[in-house]
Structures are given as C-alpha cells and as structure tokens.
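Late entry, evening session. Most of the bench is empty. Finally got around to the prediction I had been postponing all week. Sequence below, unchanged from the version circulated by S.P.
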Amino acid sequence: MWRHSSEDFSVSNIRYFSKHKGEVNCCAFSPDCQIMLTCCDDGRLYLWNATSAKHLATFNGHSGPVKSCVFSSDGQLFASASHDRTVRIWSRSITECTHILTAHSGSVETVSFSPDGQWLVSGGWDNRALIWRVQSGELLEDLRGHTAAVQSSAFSSDSQCVATGSWDRTVRVWKLFEEKEAVTLQGHLGNVACLCFSVSGMLASGSWDGTVRVWSPLSHACLFVLGGCERVWVRSLAFSRDGLVLASTAEGDMVRIWDVTTGVCLKRLVIRTQHTAVCSLLMGSFSPAVLNSWM
C-alpha cells in the first residue's frame, strides 16, 4: 500500500501484506479506512488492519478465484464475486457468510453495494447485471442488454442508478426499478474495466483502450477523454470527496490525478517497484491511497 505524502506527490512503500497464495485481484477499504479487504486467485478473502498490516481473518467458501470484493457503506458487511459463479455476502462482526447468491451462469467479475446499503449489483460472463436485496439475498432485477461480459459496476451517490461496463466496449446506465431503457454510452475502443460516480452524478469509465472518459450526469455526453497515449489498461478510478478531482491507474506503474473541470492532468505518480500492479484506489479530498498487488 502507498499513500500520498507531500505536495510534490512523492511516495514511499509503507506496508506490505503477505498471506496470499495467488494473484490479488481486488482490494477494498472499510469506510473508516481502518480495515482492508483483499481477494485472491486462491479463492479466499483476507481481512487486514490497514495501519499495522496485521492479518485479522481469512474467509473461505468460494471454490474458484475471487474476482471482486467491496465493503458496504456502514462497513458491517462485505461482498465477494467469484469465478465459481456465485456472489457471497459476509458479516464482518460474526465473520460468516450470510447469503450465497447463485443466479449467474458464468464467472462473476464485479460486485458493488449501493450507498444506502439496500442493494447489491453483480455482473459477469453471462452478460447480465443482477440487482439483489442485501438484507434477504432476494434477486430483484435482471438487467440485460450488454452483448459481452459485464466487468465493472457502480451505483450513483443517491442509490437510484447503477452503471455497468462491459467487454462489448459500452457503459450502460440503468434507473433502478423502472421500465425505461438503459442509456448506452459509447466511445471506448476496449473493454470497460472500471467505473465510478462523483457526488454530483458525474460518471467516469476506464478502459483497456488506455483512456478514461468522463460523462455528464444530465446529457450523458462525454465531457473529456483523459489519457490514451500509452494504450495500457486502466485498472481503477476514484473521485475525490468533493468530486472535483479524479485519480486513475494504468496497468503497470502509473497513477494520474485529473482536474475534472478542465480535463488537465494535475500530477503523476510513478511507482518504481518490480512485479506490482495497482489494483485499487481510495481518494480523500486530494489524497489517494494506492493498493498494489504483487505478482
């Protein structure tokens, strides 16, 4: 894990988390930033003290690689998505799985909680995004329209909309529990690997084509196309709390900080460590924490 430590954006390696038996696919922080969750190709989830790097717990249950993990907004639950075609909801307090969600017919690649904690979205190789009720594990909606795997997902800050990104190179924005057709956002030339909403409803999407696109919450027009020169996979995105700054990571060793009002790159961070790839970002007002996976 790395942390922004000064105005010139110098960094230092501050913690190393070592228990995984395979490649780390995803990382997530609890809302208070005290606990870190990681998931791995070994089929397990790992809970850590983010400050001390102490290993707190290991969660078993999946029978295949765990592709995505996320905390609920209150930090009491977390969810995991796996190649075994299931989604699991776990209780942090009792350290047990509370629901196993089994409607997908292929590997599940992404999972996200709504900010209000009521809903969960999952997406995967069956080209579908499914909406679940967190409390009961009930399947509520089956969102169809993508023509290839759903790799990424995100809820809007008001929990009324969900965005999905696909290997079909499109982003779809769905209004929950309405019959309206999803809005389709086109322009990426590669798989859409990551998504995030700002507090104002602005949507950012990152792609294997090496670009980040920023979309208007009202017109759904593309406001900016960021990056793209290196043609490397954009792995993760995070807006600052005020929604004015966006952090993006590219496959390899680059993190960029963007002003989303102008599209200008404000700062760059190059991570000089062998065999790492940035797998997740967490942003404060202007301070990204960068989570790395060691290959």
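Two things to note before I forget:
The mean pLDDT is 87.
The CA atoms of residues 211 and 228 lie 5 Å apart.
Will write this up properly tomorrow.
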